[in-house]
Amino acid sequence: MAGRRTNLALLIALGIALSTGVVAFALGSGAASAVVIAHGAAGVAVVVLAPWKQQIIRRGLGRRRPGRRVAILLGGAVAITVASGFAHAAGVTSIAMSVTAMQVHVAAALVVSGLFTRHLVTRWVRPRRTDLGRRSVVRAAGLAAAAGVGWSVTEGAIVGAGLPGADRRFTGSHERGSQHPDQMPVTQWLFDTVPQVNPATWRLTVRTPAGTRAWALPDLRAAPHVTHDAVLDCTGGWYAHQSWTGIPLRHLLGDDPAGRRIVVTSITGYTRALPVVAIDDLILALVVGGIPLSAGHGFPARLIAPGRRGFWWVKWVQNIAVDDVPWWVAPPFPAQ
Q1: CA distances from 142 to 13, 150, 156, 294, 305 (A)
Q2: Disulfide check for 91: which of 105, 123, 165, 292 has CB 3.0–4.6 Å away?
């Protein structure tokens, strides 16, 4: 395969891998399975193209060209991303100390996205009419087929060998601590840390166009409760099925909260905005598995958002507000 065609194929494969990785991070239901499959197949395509790319790299190392160092770093980052992705799929949950394969995979992918952009600038390949010719389309279809078969074979090998990765959820996450809250991992977004909350002084502030109310913990415990079974699917690569007990947000916000979004904010400043139309799915949980939430799992109260990935399940909730701003105005992923 000529160098130009290899580079174009890698450009497409990496683009699909990065974009589907971002989308898979955001989805907790619906099309998540198809996106995760596409993500895995794109990773296999990169592996399939590796022998041809190695020949290009050997030729390139002998020449001093702009962006040479970036290209070398990019190759290394791609290798780490692919290797850690396969490790996670096979069931490797811990690589060193508390660092997981998924964390390495995501961190390396972020490095790849930056280097990939820089590499495109310095080594841009101009499109040609022949890139959309019949031969190119046939080759692209062949690569896609090989990637699909490779993904199927890999998944079959994981299941056949009885590896831990065989029981992954459709999002790619591994089961950890279902129905055993004390065995559920303690994770938080990026640089958040577990806060120490004084239950005697803690207050939940609820703001709606109808007014503001501060709820003390005894008030919440005395409010009408519901118990709901839901899966917490963390973007750290694990999921847990638990029974959550708490107050429906409909009770806290009123039967008809005037507004377009519900803004939930943690003691740490972590914030998520959800559409008001989802109010009947949302619960402010105080208890999991029949016991009060632990500090690491969100004490005194955390949001339960079934069908959404874990970063929507705000822990250590301190403020809930309704406003008239479209919910999608906020960034798709938390900034902090």
Answers
A1: 13, 12, 21, 52, 41
A2: 165
- What is the reported pTM? 0.87
In this structure, are strands 317-323 and 203-208 parallel, antiparallel, or unpaired?
parallel
Q: Counting beta carbons within 10 angstroms of the beta carbon of residue 94, is it exposed (0 to 12), middle (13 to 18) or buried (19 or more)?
A: exposed
Please tell me what DSSP assigns to residue 233. E
| Residues in Cβ contact with 273 at an 8 Å cutoff, skipping those fewer than 6 apart | 261, 262, 263, 264, 325, 327, 329, 330
Helices (H), 91-180: 101-122, 134-160
Peptide bond into 164 cis (omega under 30): no
Kindly list the structural domains of the chain, giving each domain's residue range(s) and its CATH number in brackets, ordered by start: 3-172 (no CATH), 181-329 (3.90.420.10)
pLDDT 10s digits, 88-121? 999 987 777 678 889 899 999 999 988 888 777 7
Residue type, 53: K
139: tokens are 């080759």
